[in-house]
Every structure is written in structure tokens, then in C-alpha cells.
Amino acid sequence: MNAYLLIDFGSTYTKLTAVDVETEEILATAKDITTIEDDIMIGFEKAYQKLRLCIEEKNITFEDINFIKKIACSSAAGGLKMYAIGLVPELTADAAKKAALGAGARVMKTYSYELNHSEIKEIKNSDADILLLAGGTDGGNKKCIIHNAKLIAEVKIKIPVLLAGNKSANDEIIEIFDDANIDYIVTENVMPKLNKINEKPTREAIRKIFMTRIVEAKGMKNAEEFISGILMPTPAAVLKAAEVLALGSDDEEGLGNLMVVDIGGATTDIHSLAEGDPSNAGVIPKGLEEPFAKRTVEGDLGMRYSALSLLEAAGTKKIRKYLHDDHKEIDVKAHCNHRHENIMMVPQTPEEIFFDEGMAGAGTEIAMIRHCGWLESVFTPMGVMYYQHGKDLLDVKYVIGTGGVLVHSENPRNILRAGEFNKEQPIHLLPRSPNYLIDSTYILSAMGLLAGEKPDMAVRIMKKYLERVN
């Protein structure tokens, strides 16, 4: 039997998925704690033995399985951390941030205009993995990006620098970096024209740097001796799966526009796969173009590490709304404190599960509002007109939920519906009436890996295994 072994070296768990390539069935999934601080293969071996047992319980002889490919993604050792530099905050700096997020990175900070000495010192002393240097449209301002390149060379930044700015400045910057022995890669401008984003070359360049330089630096080189390769950060694999599921492949129809809500202990990630053009007449798009495959990361909205910042962002009133606690009988602050202090907590009682779901509802509402576009009304001699900022996601067909609180919930739809369009706040362009699916077997990152090799199969498996919830 020929099979693929798909591995996700996650920040907490190492997750394995075995796929029979002939029947297109998932043979088994298994997980164990990620052991990046000792040897990442210790956790992998434990998960591998669990996978073996799961397969043998199906009366399949494990030795008969021929793993023709073993490929992985990773968010271990803190994931891929990046700083992004641009010229104008709402333009090249924002374009650089969007491209880095789409590549699966954690964007720790974004800088704009000419860097000062305290900012370059902050970058030099950080634990970032890659520095993305953008700025200026092609043929436009190059003074700023050259100034920033000189500062990078002056302090001799040690991490890889990805140059994705005004191409007219490249020759001078390359000379500056060569003289200072800076480790750099040049790619296309992330914003070659005003308000026109060009994120794909930057995303691909980040993936290549991750594969060739970051994997080894994070202590995962020995994993590559057993597997075929660690191909991308885990969030990039999830985005890849969502993208192929939305667009389809050569032989398999996609589902159309969709979103993914990924609720974790530290963050809530939202992915949208849609152009996001205005769906109503008389609405004019404003600002930087949005990428078709867009990912946002809310570092203050998580179920454990970020429980207190979620409380701060939502307030007790919003969390009580999802707990139906009109009489303020639940000590919301105490519950959030307990989760923050016990980050490995697994809810056991109906009360603990109910509170987690209330938190998840509040977090989903905020994360979806931050991700989706919104309308600005403008009064003109011809009457009221509207500018659209960000994406119009009113007509998204599917919203897919993943993450422990959703997968283990008996009412995941109630959590996801917190991110629906609300007539009381009509300026927010949230999905109006999507269908809801749940990633109950945690296959999204695995299917992102598989999509790189066999996209038709990846689409078919996702259609089969993502569960519709009513």
C-alpha cells in the first residue's frame, strides 16, 4: 500500500496524518507533545508509534505500508518570526505585513518611513528570523529604502534580509549589502504600483528562506534526515489548503469563496479566500488592494496564553453576552485568570466547556470584524456615497472552523455564528449566511502539504472529511 505521511511539527503537538494514495482515505491521525527543546524526533517517534497502533487496529499490517513521501510543516520553536519595513504605513508597510502574514509568519512589528537608531537597535536585538525590507513603488521614492538599507548594513544585521521594494533602488542596496556581508535575497516589489499589492513573490521567497535557513537554525535539521523536507510554516500550509479548496484544481471543482476561523491558545487566525470586491452598487473601494488569500493573526485573542488580553479586548459585557449571563452570576475575570495561569487546561465539566465556548464566541466576533472590510459613508452633492475599506465578505459561501474549542464543541456553529453579519452593525462586511464546516480530524495543514504534490486528491479529501454543522 502506498501512502503519504504528512507531519505538522506544531508549537504544542506534533501531528501525523497517513493518507492512502490509492483509495484517498485517511488511514489514521496521531499526535504527541512537540519536543523541540531536546530532540524534535522524540515527540515524533511517540506520535509515530501511536499512528502505527491506530492503523493496526484497522487490521492493516503496518509493514505493508510504503510511505512514498514524508513531508512536513512546522510552527515549532516560536514559529516564523518577522519584522517588516515599508515607506508609508498604509501602503508599502501594510503590503509587506500582509505578504509576511500570508507566508505564515508572525509579524512582530511593522516599521515605516526612515528608521531611526533606536528602531534599528530594536531590530538587531530581537529574535526575529527574517527581516522584510520594502518601500517605494517601482520608479518612485528610493531615498527611504536606501537609508534603511544603510542602517541595516551599519549594524550588521545577522538574520536574512528579504529585499522587496522599489526596483530602482536594488542596485545600490545590493552594493551596500555586499560590502557589509549582509545575508540577503532580492525579490519583486511587494507594491510595484500605488495601491497594487504583489504578495506572491514575497510569500514564495519567505518559504524558500524558511526551508533553506530557518529550519536548521530552529533545531529541526535532524528531522530532515528522516523525512523528505519541512516545506513551509504551518499557517502557510493551512492557507494553502484553504486556497486550493476555494479555487479547486485541474480535475476537481472548488467550493468557491470561503473563510477559515482557527482558534488557538495564543492567537486566533482568520483566513479569507475571496476577491472581496464591493457587492453593492455605489460602493467605491479605497486604500491598498487586498490579496485574494488573506490571513490575519490576532495575538490578543487566544483561549489560554492570551485569555487575559481577550478579556481586555472583549470586556466582560461581550463575554457575558455569549454566556447568556444577564444577571452577572459568572465571575468572568476569575475564569479568564484561571485559564491564563493554567495554559494546558483541558475543560472537563459542562461549566468549563460552556465558559470556553463563550470566550471563543467573543473572540470570533472581534477577530472577524478586524479581518473583514467596513464601509465609510461620505456625504456628497449627489447624496450619500460609501467607501469600502478592506474586503467585502458578505457573500462568502463557507466558513470552516478549526482549533480545539471548535472541534470538541457540541455546538461549533454557535461559536462561528458570532462572526456573521449583524444588522445592528451593518458597516461591517461579515458573511451573511454561510455554510459551516468543521475540521474535526485536523487535516487542514496536512492537506496544504498534500496540495503541493497532489492538489486534486487534497481537494477531494477535504470535501470528504470536513464536516458540515447545522
Task: Write up this protein.
By secondary structure, the protein is an alpha/beta fold. Helices cover about 35% and strands about 25% of the residues. The protein has 14 helices and 19 strands. Helix 7 (about 235-245) crosses helix 13 (about 445-455), helix 8 runs antiparallel to helix 9 (about 330-340) and helix 13 (about 445-455) packs antiparallel against helix 14 (about 455-465). The radius of gyration is 23 Å and the shape is globular.
The helix content is 25-40%
Low-confidence stretches: none
**Largest beta-sheet characterization:** 6 strands, mixed
Residue-averaged pLDDT, rounded? 94
Distance between the termini: 36 Å
State the shape.
Answer: globular
Task: State Rg.
Answer: 23 Å
Number of DSSP helical runs: 14
Strands across the major sheet, in which order?
14-12-11-17-18-19
Structural class: alpha/beta
Number of strands: 19
List the helices and strands and how they pair.
Elements (H helix, E strand, L loop, with lengths): L1 E8 L3 E8 L4 E9 L6 H17 L9 E9 L6 E5 L3 H14 L3 E6 L5 H8 L5 E4 L9 H12 L6 E3 L6 H10 L4 E3 L13 H18 L11 E5 H14 L10 E6 L4 E6 L9 E4 L6 E6 L8 H17 L8 H10 L8 H22 L2 E7 L2 E7 L8 E5 L1 H4 L4 H5 L18 E4 L5 H10 L1 H11 L1 E3 L1
Parallel strand pairs: 1-4, 4-10, 5-6, 5-7, 7-8, 8-9, 11-17, 13-16, 17-18
Antiparallel strand pairs: 1-2, 2-3, 11-12, 12-14, 15-16, 18-19
What features would you highlight for this structure?
470 residues; alpha/beta
